[in-house]
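note to self — DONT lose this again. spent like an hour looking for the file last time. sequence + predicted structure for the chain T wanted, 284 res
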Amino acid sequence: MFLLPILCLLQTAPTLVDPKTPTQARPVLSSPDDKARWNLIFSDEFNDTAIDPAKWTVETTSRKRPDIMVKADAQQVEEKDGNAYIYYRKSKTEDNTYFAGRFNSKGHFSTTYGYLEARMHLVKPDGYQVAFWMMPAQEGLTAPKGVTDGTANDGAEIDIIEGNKAGEQYSTGLHWDGYAKPAHKANGAMVKAPGLHTQEYHTIGFEWSPTVLKFYYDGKLVRTIDKPTLIPQVPHHIIFSGSCFGVNDWVTGNVLLNTFIQEGGTAKAYIDYVRVFKRDESTR
């Protein structure tokens, strides 16, 4: 007599796989012989008219930089025309204040290991950037309970792509053991990215196993991290974020000198889809 309620619960349980994701979808990198080993566990095709609150939280935050304030709110993220848009704007009411959208899957979806893939249009840096990255789902983030053990095994900021340079390159890497010096540690690198800003979309991939991190650009492997102490072993969630910079040595340009945004223009990055797969080792 308890079977029917249980069946009803199973049938009505929400899925984190977008029904509009093609059933045959597999990572861009996978060969025909390898496709059956990847199972889709999360996806969003961004084909609706609003960001899905069952998958994402649109951030409302403020970040102080040396010469500007950067804010995020619900007006800087929009889902339409098959994309999730991240907008970059100058405030009309606050001096030296800029807006850039952000949204994340914290509390909705996280994973340990798998293959993450996003098809994106990167904003061309001119004092701003877009990033596709991950953070630990745990409290304490990259230094759980304040522990700085010298490894990324207990969690790290995983930067799959940070589009911070105007040339054909972008940044990948890790940050761990918190952000305060001297404990903070990082392992970043610029990778080559032909056509980064001359083609509308690029497919950004990240393969994560217990022993290796692999970064992909349009299906091509561009970076590998396999040092055992640098492989996170705890659940992480997904973040898509925009940001603005004034005087800096990180992003190409300076938003204070960007005529387009200073005169009221709106810059944008956008994501066509994001998909997460888990590898089925039983099919070997």
